[in-house]
Write a structure and sequence with these properties.
- By secondary structure, this protein is an alpha/beta fold.
- It has eight helices and eleven strands.
- It has a five-stranded parallel beta sheet, sandwiched between helices. The protein has a four-stranded antiparallel beta sheet with strand order 6-7-8-9. The protein has a two-stranded antiparallel ribbon with strand order 10-11.
- Helix 6 crosses helix 7.
- The chain is elongated, with a radius of gyration of 18 Å.
Length: 243
């Protein structure tokens, strides 16, 4: 086992032994280490204390459901979370995305696809031996917005903006090309990765969350402008009152 493998730990949370066995074997074969929790309270405790690289989280769990675990983990950490569920309805997908899960996979699923999605998410979040999605470039400042790529910290007029890694990625893409309109499909590929297969409403949900975080930090949420039938762009001028 090489040094990097010690950092790539997937917490598998599922109460079905057959799924845990199959997924654990596939991840071990792919070079990952695994931890296992079979109920919600244990999953939450391990997610907060064991510091996994990624949490593979079943929605239906004893003790505490997976969506609640996801909400609690996301409130305290930006650990990547992939939801597993046997329920494929639109409402379940939207709920998972509203809770800021990084991906959503419906049972039954292909183990090869699952491993591929996990690799994509870890590449994006810089948790594998591949180069981080954030190159070590200088801090980007545009108007009152400041983005530090090395620390993944964002501020508005020196006031911290509380962002998850995924939200930081999305804001960074928009800020690097201000006023350039990004179609939702392009943002879906650039932020979530080419293996992400959910629909375009994923982007809309994340934009809504991002605007809320900007507002909480005193930044005008309208700097992320919608262009009807086109996509989104960062437009600081849109937040400046006309004289």
């Amino acid at each position: 086992m090489n040094e990097d493998q010690h950092a790539r730990v997937v917490l598998i949370v599922d109460d079905e032994p057959s799924i845990v066995e199959v997924v654990s074997y596939a991840l071990h074969e792919a070079g990952f280490r695994t931890l296992v929790a079979t109920d919600g309270p244990t999953a939450l405790r391990m997610g907060l204390t064991e510091h996994p690289s990624l949490v593979l989280l079943d929605v239906m769990l004893p003790g505490l459901d997976g969506l609640t675990v996801c909400r609690e983990l996301r409130a305290a950490s930006d650990v990547p979370i992939v939801l597993l569920t046997a329920r494929g309805s639109e409402s379940d997908r939207v709920m998972g995305l509203e809770l800021q899960a990084d991906d959503y996979i419906v049972k039954p699923f292909s183990v090869r696809e699952l491993v591929a999605r996990i690799r994509t998410i870890l590449r994006r979040t810089g948790s594998t031996d591949t180069q981080s999605a954030h190159p070590p470039t200088a801090t980007l400042t545009i108007g009152g917005l400041r983005l530090d790529a090395d620390s993944c910290q964002a501020t508005w007029n020196d006031w911290p903006i509380a962002l998850t890694r995924l939200q930081f990625d999305l804001l960074s893409i928009l800020a690097r090309h201000p006023r350039m309109v990004f179609p939702r499909a392009q943002l879906l590929q650039d932020v979530w990765g080419q293996d992400f297969t959910d629909d375009l409403r994923t982007v809309d949900s994340m934009i809504k969350r991002l605007r809320s975080r900007l507002r909480d930090a005193g930044a005008p949420p309208e700097i992320i402008a919608s262009r009807r039938d086109l996509g989104y762009c960062l437009d600081l001028a849109a937040a400046t009152p006309s004289g």
